[in-house]
Design a protein that fits this description.
Elements (H helix, E strand, L loop, with lengths): L16 E5 L11 H9 L1 H19 L4 H13 L4 H15 L5 H12 L3 E9 H11 L2 E10 L2 E7 L6 H11 L5 E6 L5 H6 L2 E4 L10
Parallel strand pairs: 1-2, 1-5, 2-3, 5-6
Antiparallel strand pairs: 3-4
Helix pairs in contact: 1-2, 2-3, 4-6
Length: 213
């Protein structure tokens, strides 16, 4: 893993390169999931669902299992919601997120694109609103998906929460053969496996990162 302000090796312009960016705390300062859930169900209801989910998981497992808490929260807040209205709301929310992206990290992302690298946002947040961000940036997206049945959300995650080791699993599924050079950008423990897997793992903090990889 390299420091956040370190420069990559000269001549890292391989067209077979890959750059993977976490979203919350990396491309954007702070969290996006709670504001979205608050928009959908109301801030008080979202806080209550998270608190009740956390309490239930901790009592049952004696530990803070973020995946399990997220699963219970989604079940409480999103079960049986109609697909089309929620997708429309999510798209509008995602479009609004593009105004709050970190300029320094976006500049790094653009530099990778200019070098011909494949760029992917890899996030534990939801595909239904992050797709608007990915479209805005002109990159691919790997994120957490929600299950839908007969025009309604079930409140369950489709597959697994895209966090931790799952980020690497999902990335590998999408890209197929590993590129010659892999860069990864993240800010939290949920990004550790992705940063370790990359040739150049960049820990993004409060200090601005340089524009060039």
């Amino acid at each position: 893993m390299i420091p956040e302000d370190a420069e990559g090796p000269a001549g890292s312009s391989s067209a077979t390169g890959l750059a993977a960016f976490d979203f919350d705390g990396t491309l954007r300062r702070g969290d996006s999931l709670f504001p979205f859930l608050g928009l959908v169900a109301g801030r008080v209801a979202a806080l209550s669902a998270i608190a009740r989910g956390a309490a239930r998981v901790i009592v049952r497992t004696r530990r803070v299992d973020r995946d399990a808490i997220k699963d219970l929260t989604f079940r409480r807040l999103l079960t049986d919601r109609e697909t089309d209205p929620l997708l429309k709301l999510a798209a509008e929310f995602g479009t609004g997120l593009t105004d709050g992206l970190r300029p320094d990290v976006v500049a790094r992302l653009r530099a990778h694109q200019q070098l011909g690298h494949r760029v992917v946002i890899v996030s534990a947040s939801l595909t239904i609103y992050l797709q608007a961000v990915a479209d805005h940036l002109g990159c691919e997206l790997v994120a957490t998906n929600l299950n839908q049945v007969n025009g309604r959300f079930t409140g369950r995650i489709e597959g697994r929460n895209c966090r931790g080791a799952e980020k690497v699993v999902r990335l590998r599924e999408v890209i197929g053969e590993r590129p010659d050079e892999v860069w990864a950008y993240g800010d939290s423990h949920g990004d550790d496996e992705m940063l370790d897997w990359a040739d150049h793992g960049v820990r993004v903090g409060r200090t601005e990162i340089s524009a060039q990889p």
